[in-house]
Amino acid sequence: MEVSGINYYEHVLDIRRVIEEAQVQNCDEALNICDLSSVERKFRLWQQQLPRIKPYYAVKCNDDSRIVQTLAGLGVGFDCASKNELKLVLDCDVSPERIIFANPCRPISHLDYAKQRQVLKGTVDNEFEIYKLHKHYPNSNLIVRFKSEAKAAQCPLGDKFGCDADIDASALMLLAKALDLTVTGTSFHVGSGCTELEAYERAIKKAKNIFKFGELLGYDLKLLDIGGGFPGSDDEQFVKIAANVNRAVQRHFADERIEIIAEPGRFFVAAAYTLVCKIHAKREVRNAAGKLDTVMYYLNDGVYGSFNCILYDHQLVTAQHYLEGAESLPTFKSLIWGPSCDALDKISENLRLPNLNRGDLLGFPNMGAYTVPIASAFNGFPLPRTLYFRAI
Ligand SMILES: Cc1ncc(COP(=O)(O)O)c(C=O)c1O
């Protein structure tokens, strides 16, 4: 099994077989199993469901270079938030036209880098940033980001970014006009992990009004950016959201000359990763009568490592054991801890599992989004190694 390269499989990636061949039980660190073909399948699903909308992958979600290279090879665009993300993508031979600098508040040195590498498209949502652009990158293309939040999302973003769509967006465009800057479009983000189907429709309608005001000012707005928020592990929900988006686009942006892009992050990568952890210690908690009440397991990865998604991304993780013939075994309330000495390092407390042993493994699917770039080796526990796979 190749640690540095890509491994190939036929038809379906067999996680049990990977675990056996990679000898995970003999290793101290956890294992990330990354299926690059899953990313490719997601791309095909996107093309099928949202043919008019070009995805610009949000690099922040998972900046693994193999993920970025896979998406670059598929012709996807990129949403970058910083100089380092721009560099990562540009170094994969992605042309600057395929990049949007979608962080409305950027340090000057990062703007200088965007200017030097000719990344023109960038979002903006306040007057100070417009003055900054006027001084440091006056020929950039401004995309006015407005706020339009979903009623339900895993991680709302509206407290931090996005101007008011009715009043502020117009004022920002007036200021840009007065400073002789070019506004080329508008953008929004309904919130990451959006679960409200109508959220995009509502935002697209607001975007249309911003386009109308831009036209009044003499701007030729050509870009609508509908942001991220698409689910990563629920394709049925994605199909429903796509139908809503298509309907709203048809109603408000029927003119095919307007380019429509999106910034999906978790959509592409969440399902591509399965994390396999080892139980390195356990404790049994008994009630006053001596009956086994809860089994506590201590794993080799936790919330300071890959499971940071529980803290930062509000993810609910599901675990799977690999015991043969466990169907007939009794299950127990199970509490799962990470390896550090911190009691915040709790992975799950709502699982029922058979009574597992030290050395047994637990697999966690859908671990590709907002995990890898944020994980730290706190308390000296190493991060998981990653094996990459692709279907033949
Ligand atoms: C500006 C921007 N675009 C896109 C994304 C990706 O969102 P998601 O992973 O929900 O698709 C984020 C996530 O925080 C973001 O801040």
Automatic annotation (TrEMBL):
Gene3D superfamilies: Alanine racemase, Lyase, Ornithine Decarboxylase, Chain A, domain 1
Record key words, sorted: Lyase, Polyamine biosynthesis, Pyridoxal phosphate
Substrates-to-products reaction catalysed: L-ornithine + H(+) = putrescine + CO2
One GO CC term on file: cytoplasm
Cofactor: pyridoxal 5'-phosphate
Pfam family, one: Orn_Arg_deC_N
GO biological process: putrescine biosynthetic process from arginine, via ornithine
Active site residues per record: C341 (proton donor)
Uppermost EC category: lyase
Residues annotated as domain Orn/DAP/Arg decarboxylase 2 N-terminal: 37-270
Function: Catalyzes the first and rate-limiting step of polyamine biosynthesis that converts ornithine into putrescine, which is the precursor for the polyamines, spermidine and spermine. Polyamines are essential for cell proliferation and are implicated in cellular processes, ranging from DNA replication to apoptosis.
Oligomeric and partner information: Homodimer. Only the dimer is catalytically active, as the active sites are constructed of residues from both monomers.
Name the UniProt record assigns to this protein: ornithine decarboxylase
UniProt source species: Drosophila virilis
Name of the gene this protein is made from: Dvir\GJ22122
